[in-house]
Amino acid sequence: MKNDSNDYVIRVLESALAVAPSQWNALLASQTAPTPFMRHEYLAAMEQSGSATPASGWTPRIVSLWRAGELHAVCALYLKDHSYGEYVFDWAWANAYEQHGLTYYPKALAAVPFTPVPGSRLLAREAAARSALVHAVLAWCKQEQQSSFHLLFGAPDDVAACEEAGLMVRHTVQFHWTQRDEQPWLSFEDFLGSLAQEKRKKIRQERRKVADAGVTFRWSRGADISASDWNFFYRCYERTYYEHGNAPYLTRDFFDRMAATMPENWLLFVAERAGKPVAVSLIALDSPALSPPGPGATGRALAAYGRYWGALERVDCLHFEACYYQPLQWCIEHGFGRFEGGAQGEHKMARALMPVKTTSCHWLAHPAFADAVERFLAKEGKGIENYLEHLDERSPFRREPMP
C-alpha cells in the first residue's frame, strides 16, 4: 500500500519478527519516551513465548512506513477479541455495543501487552511520519472493518498526533516516585526525612515488622540473576495469579527469553528467611542505550518499573518492603530518577509514589457510539481532574521545609 502524499510505502505485517531488530530499536532510541517494553526483543518474546498470540486473544499486526527501504515509522498493533491485559477499561463500551446488537470485538489496540507503562507507541523519525502512521492505522482499521482503535498509555507526541487525526482522549491515574531535581535524596533515610512525620513513622514500622520476622533481602541484576532465582521467581509469579483464580498472562518461556535477550533490563529482589527464599519482586530497568546523548530523549531520567511479585509465605508488610521500599532504596543508591509502581493503587501515595495523569486515545467507527463516548469522556475527564486535586491535598510530603 502506498501513501502518495508522503511517498511512504505502508506495510501491515503479521509479526514484529518481520522487522529487523536493529531498525526497530534504532527508531525506538530516538523517541522522547522510550521504554524497554517497546524493544523489539520484548515484543518478539511476547509472540514467540505464546504469551501474546491469536490463541490468547492478541493477534499482532505491525503497521510500518517505509521509504527507500528504510523504516520511517512503526506501530505495534494488536487485534483483540477481549479487553483483558490492557488496564484502560472499556468493558462498558463493549457491553453497550452488545446490548444494541453490534459487534465490538475484534478491536485494534496499540499497546504493550499486559504492561501499563506510559511511553512511546508511535515510533517515528519525525512528526510528519508519526502523523502519517496514525492515518495509516485508521485507514487500515476502516478497511478491515474494526469497531475501534485504541492507543494506550501514549507519550505526549503520540497523543498530539492522535488528536490531530480526530481521536478522543481519555485520562487515567498512576502513581510514580520521582527523585528531587534540587538536593537529590542521597539515601533512603534522607528520603524519609522529607515525609510528614506520620508517614515516616508508618514506613519505619512496616520495615521493622519485616526485619523482626527474620526476613532479609538480596538483589541481582542482569546476567547475575541465576537460573535458580528465575525459577523461584516464576514459581511465585504463577502462584500469585492462581491465588486470584487466574492463569498467569506470561509463560515461563517469556522470562527465559528476557534473561537471554534483555538481561540488563531486569532487577530481582529475593526475600529470604532462615536461608530459604520466601518472596520475590521483579523490577524492569531503563537501559542507558535507550536514552543516548543528543536530541529526543536527552535529559530523561532513568526509570525503574515495578512489574511482578509473589510470596510463598505470609509475612506482615512483606509486599510493601519487596515492591516499594527495596526498589526505592535501590533507585536512590544507583542514580535512577523515577520508579513507576504500575496501574492504580492509592495506597502507593503513603509510600511517596505521587499521582501522575496518563493518557490513551480512542477512535470508534460507529458515529452514534463515538458521540456517546465523547460525552462520557468529557464528564470522566472532569472527575479525573477533581480526583487529582483531592490526591494533591493528601501529599505524604511535609508542607514546610525543615528548620
- Report the span from N to C terminus: 66 Å
Give the count of structural domains.
Answer: 2
CATH fold description of the largest domain: Aminopeptidase
Query: For this structure, what is the CATH class of the largest domain?
Result: Alpha Beta
State mean pLDDT (0 to 100 scale): 93
Instruction: Report Rg.
Output: 22 Å
Strand tally, please? 14
Residues in β-strands, percent: 25-35%
What is the N-to-C succession of helices and strands? EEHHEEHEEHEHEHHEHHEEEHEEH
| CATH superfamily membership of the largest domain | Gcn5-related N-acetyltransferase (GNAT)
pLDDT < 50 runs, ≥5 residues: 292-298
| Major pleated sheet | 14 strands, mixed
Number of H- or I-type helical stretches: 11
Kindly state the percentage of residues in helix: 25-40%
The CATH architecture of the largest domain can be given as 3-Layer(aba) Sandwich
Counting helices, strands and paired strands, the structural category is: alpha+beta
Question: Can you tell me about this structure?
Answer:
The chain is of the alpha+beta class and 403 residues long. It has two domains: 2-175 and 357-391, 3-Layer(aba) Sandwich (Aminopeptidase); 176-355, Aminopeptidase. 36% of the residues lie in helices and 25% in strands. The protein contains eleven helices and 14 strands. It has helices at residues 21-29, 40-48, 91-99, 127-143, 156-164, 188-192, 197-212, 227-243, 252-261, 318-334, 367-392, and strands at 2-3, 8-13, 58-67, 70-80, 107-110, 122-124, 148-151, 168-178, 215-221, 266-273, 276-285, 303-311, 338-343, 354-364. Strands 1, 2, 3, 4, 5, 6, 7, 8, 9, 10, 11, 12, 13 and 14 form a 14-stranded mixed sheet that branches. Helix 2 (40-48) packs antiparallel against helix 9, helix 4 (127-143) packs across helix 5 (156-164) and helix 7 (197-212) packs across helix 10. It is globular, with a radius of gyration of 22 Å. The protein starts with a strand and ends in an 11-residue tail after the last helix.
